[in-house]
Amino acid sequence: MNIVCLDLEGVLVPEIWIAFSEATGIPELRRTTRDEPDYNKLMAYRIAILREHGLGLRQIQDVIAGIDPLPGAVEFLDALREETQAVILSDTFTQFAAPLMRKLGRPTIFCNELVAAPDGEITGFKMRCEQSKLTTVRALQSAGFETVASGDSYNDLAMIRASKAGFLFRSTNKIKADNPDIPAFETFDGLLAAILDAVRE
Question: How many CB atoms lie under 10 A from the CB of residue 100?
Fold first, then answer.
């Protein structure tokens, strides 16, 4: 039995923090897991910038409300789920994900939680578990699933390598060059065909 594990941002929807960076005019917030492999370091950096500018959860959620899935993402996910099960494994937060899941047809997502003060100031975050994507893939495997995984960032590499098949999607040149053995795709049609081939094996 197979289950496909997909990253969210950069694969199915635009990067939330890049969209927020563009909305606020704060270029430092463009930094993502494509740039920084250490997620704890990245989030500490983001929270410090938000505090410096007096920005909080409400302002980010206002930007997220205007984000739509990447062109072709809904059709890709629908076609994938016609043939196999899929789950989104993301390092985003429940406070960010809900409107995006509605637009994607309400797929299952495992993600994390922000810690916010009553006034909306983001004071921290709680990871669902350590190495959440890899840990989840291994848990699914222990429950009898064979996993196929795809993502675009450093924090996706462990789940991709732990799966029976894994693919990069619209990743950076550096990540692709550093991982030449992982097939890389730029279109949803190519990714869908590769995933379904792996599922049918």
Answer: 24
Strands 2-6 and 85-93: parallel
The token duo for 1 is 């039995």
15 catalytic? Reply is no
Residue 39 has pLDDT above 90, yes or no: no
From 7, 91, 152, 156, active-site residue: 7
Give the ranges where the chain is alpha helix by DSSP (H): 16-24, 39-53, 57-64, 73-83, 94-103, 132-142, 157-162, 173-178, 188-200
* CATH code for the domain in which residue 182 is found: 3.40.50.1000
Residue 28 appears among annotated catalytic residues = no
Residue 23: the pLDDT is 96
Domain that holds residue 101: 2-12+71-110+128-200
| Catalytic residue, candidates 9, 91, 152, 156 | 9
Residue keyed to tokens 């043939």: 83
- 46 in a domain, yes or no? no
Q: What's the structural domain count of the chain? A: 1
